[in-house]
Structure prediction request, 469 residues.
Amino acid sequence: MGDVDVVIAGGGPAGCAVAAALAELGWSVLLLDAGVDRHKQLAGELLHPTGVRDLRALGFGDVVDAWTSQPVRGFAVRFHAPTHTLILPYGRGVTGLSLEHANLTVPLQEAVSRRPGVTLHGRARMTAVDHNDEHGVHLRFSHEGAEHTVKARLLVAADGRASPVRRMLGIAEHHVRISTMLGVTVDSACLPYPDHGHQFVGGPLHALAYAIQPGVARVMVDLPLGSTAQTLKAHPELLLALPPGLRSEVRQALEQQPAPRMASNDDRLAETVWAGSAVLVGDAAACCHPLTASGMASCFHDARALQEALHRHAGHIPRALERYAHERRPAQRTRVALASALYSAFAGQDEGMRALRLGLLHYWEHSPRGARASMALLSSEEPRMRVMAREYLRVVGHALAAMLSTRGQGGRLRSAGPLLRSAGPPLRDAVASAMEQLGSWLHRRVRRPVYTLARAGWASPRRAFASNR
Ligand SMILES: Cc1cc2nc3c(=O)[nH]c(=O)nc-3n(C[C@H](O)[C@H](O)[C@H](O)COP(=O)(O)OP(=O)(O)OC[C@H]3O[C@@H](n4cnc5c(N)ncnc54)[C@H](O)[C@@H]3O)c2cc1C
Prediction:
């Protein structure tokens, strides 16, 4: 096989989006997909408005319009004790959408394979990276029973969270298994708010639900590691967070759907997202618990960030990849930290997390601004870590206020300690990351321009800083 501009390993949401983005720049694209059966997968089905917007910007507007998708106007969060549902709308009349995973991803792949400059090899698996430096990559892949070699200017690893290509590149990752997701389909008439994503929080198990086609909803139940569908069948009381109608639908589905879809929920963060002339996108670069439903929006954001960086530094791939890494980092860190903090607050069973949940309920109920800010973070509209740190602090404040208004003196003292102990570490991490983001913003906006001016002989950095003051 001859040379191409870019080889993309993986034809999921990230790989298809990158293929479209780079074909638009006029690059020749070889898209390899190992061909996982998406009809059997439990994976992304709800797409936030940011994801829809990025898909349209990447030229997939006709695919989006052809989907038989369900509108999603925001999240309905149902607290178990006290039982109370709060609506968090996206705001400003924008909507997301949801549809069955295969119905979402297969048309994307078909559409991108028709783009000029894109060659798709289905059932093709990348097997080795023989050479990778700033001048390009040499790699091998298997297709139709034969092994092929190819040279490219750029290799994009879009091969999902287990990412064999990341390992071939020798990039380490931080990996924590969190829980297991079990998914069944039920009658969507049982959903209390059919055009919303649902979060069922504070019960023995956390659950998510949304409509995926007319009359059909997906319910996903978060199981502790080591539990299976049998555990749920044997202990139906674990579904207490769901309203009674939905609970009996899920129990019925467990009897009738002998092999419910399962997926592992993991935190995975690559140590770096680029090396030589290779770059990671989508889940291969970072993935987190799916309760914020932000994975696919993040894939499409990666594709646009990579396109922008390669457009700006067309002749210098390492510089473009460095820019891509820098541009995507704040949003990724906020997304992963938010998913982890929300998962603890929604599913945590200790006294501190119970108090924090009451704080969330109190906050969203009493502060429409707070509900909007939380939804902007949740849907990846707001990427800044300092906003997350600020909102988290406010929730802790509301948890303390809720405690003071409902408990006697002894109760106050008993719950404040566990609350601060549980909320402390996520808050400390968020503040540290926010400071890092601020430092890098200052570096880009102030120090670098001043030194560039100084190098060009316009001013000495010290004089420029002095005149700024
Ligand atoms: C239970 C669950 C629910 C989720 N719900 C949502 C949701 O509602 N909304 C949302 O936005 N996100 C959700 N996500 C996350 C979302 O599914 C992922 O973020 C998204 O699928 C990542 O896309 P990707 O293209 O990076 O990887 P993948 O979708 O995993 O695609 C990777 C592709 O790479 C191919 N591949 C693997 N190895 C090779 C190789 N060696 N050579 C060539 N090809 C290879 C595979 O065949 C596959 O097609 C959920 C995830 C889970 C687990």
About this structure: DSSP finds 13 helices and 19 strands in the chain. Residues 9-15, 32-36, 42-47, 125-126, 158-160, 164-165, 181, 220, 263, 282-284, 287, 290, 293-297, 299 surround flavin-adenine dinucleotide (CB under 6 Å). Residues 56 and 64 are 8 Å apart (CA to CA). Residues 3-67+101-174+268-328 form a domain with the FAD/NAD(P)-binding domain fold (CATH 3.50.50.60).
